[in-house]
Amino acid sequence: MVTVSLCMIVRDEEQVLARCLDSVADLVDEIVIVDTGSVDSTKEIASKYTKRIYDFEWIDDFAAARNTSFSYATMEYVMWLDADDYLKDRDRDKLRELKRTLSDEVDSVVMAYHLLFDGYGNAIAMSRRNRIVKRSRQFRWYNAVHEYLLVDGNYYLSDIAVSHGRVHTHTTRNLDILERKLERDGELFGRDMLYYANELSDAGKFREATEHYVRFLDTEADYFEDSLMACARLAACYHEMKNEDLKLKTLLHSMAYDVPRADFCCSIGQCFADKEQFDKAIYWFKLALTQENPPHHFGVLNLICWTWFPHFQLCICYGMTGELELAHAHNEKALAYLPRDENLLRNKALLEAALASGDGGKGV
Q1: Are the beta carbons of 271 and 317 closer than 8 angstroms?
Q2: Any idea where the Glycosyltransferase 2-like domain is (predicted)?
Q3: Residue 234 sits in the same domain as residue 348
Q4: CA distance linking residue 304 with residue 300, whole number of Å
Q5: What 3 state SS string does 106-175 have?
Q6: Are 36 and 63 in contact (CB under 8 A)?
Q7: Do 266 and 175 sit in the same domain of this protein?
């Protein structure tokens, strides 16, 4: 059985830290906590789980703090979590089994990262992370904001998911860090430019954000997933700015970087549905249903676009074109994912009543 160090950086996490550590403390062999300046009871809570608590003077650099936390690890492998992350019971069981069976030839274990959940507890947004890495490889973190762990070698794509349960609201912390970097360096490049655009967008500065997204897409990105993210976020900015033509063009441009993906297909379909061009909308929602969830994708995936959402939209589109049997069929498929959803149950009742009365339907 391999041994694992859990390494975390924290600051003012008294609301969530115990939840995180309770979910994983008995599964790891040591816990390292690096505190970057807490003024609440974070360190007191951490002390109930480990004596290995270290202070780190904050220097506007998340990668530096992560690398410091990794430097204190002593076990064969290093796992990282944020304080508002946790493992559900099924994932705890899988992690326990992974420790028992993991080959020492594996350099990195990739896990799903479930970011958002619906009212039924289903993950609706996810990405993937290199979550456990071999300490002897001395992998490093990069980027002051939205830091990433650069790995190579043999990786294992696991089915374990880390769940994210944020309680803090969005702050300007990351935006402030990047603006200070911009002022200091005169220009932002690569991922810094992309994440600066993201922070501007999150702050509601959509026009400024679009300028940086366009600049980013005009450069050659190191990772195609970053270009896909830029397309998705830029399209969302154009939507906020009521520029639906540029929104559609940006979504279509995503296919310069990868094959059609279900989330982009759904967004394109929605553009046509909003224009009441239902035949075109139907084409794109049906195309979404043919796309496989990309197993090696590390960007954020809107999971509903691979499950019930295209069926729901096809129900609406077929309903608008009078093809009620097709609308009913797709509503039933959406219900298979969300059997208690009130909107879908209401659709079911209305469609079945209309079909029973002979009000419409062109056949499946």
Answers
A1: no
A2: 5-142
A3: no
A4: 12
A5: CCEEEEEEEEEECCCCCEEEEEEEEEEEEHHHCCEEECCCCCEEECCCCEEEEEEEEEECCCCCCCCHHH
A6: no
A7: no
The pLDDT value given to residue 359? 64
pTM value is 0.91
For residue 331, the Cα-to-chain-centroid distance in whole angstroms is 27
Total count of domains within the chain: 3
Is the separation of the CB atoms in 224 and 258 below 8 Å? yes
Task: Find all residues with CB under 8 Å of 160, minimum gap 6, and list them.
Answer: 87, 91, 94, 95, 98, 109, 111, 112, 131
CA angle 258, 159, 25 (to 5 degrees): 130
Answer yes or no: do 242 and 112 share one domain: no
| Poorest-pLDDT segment among 43-52, 111-120, 239-248, 355-364 | 355-364
Q: Which structural domain range is residue 146 located in?
A: 4-164
Counted residue by residue, the chain has a size of: 364
Q: Domain boundary at 197, 229, 258, which?
A: 258
Is the domain of 148 the same as that of 175?
A: no
CA pseudo-torsion sign 316, 317, 318, 320: positive
- Provide the strand spans (E) within the chain: 4-10, 30-35, 53-55, 77-80, 85-86, 108-117, 123-134, 140-142, 148-150, 155-164, 301-302
Q: Which of 146, 164, 182 is the last residue of a domain?
A: 164
Same-domain check for residues 156 and 46: yes
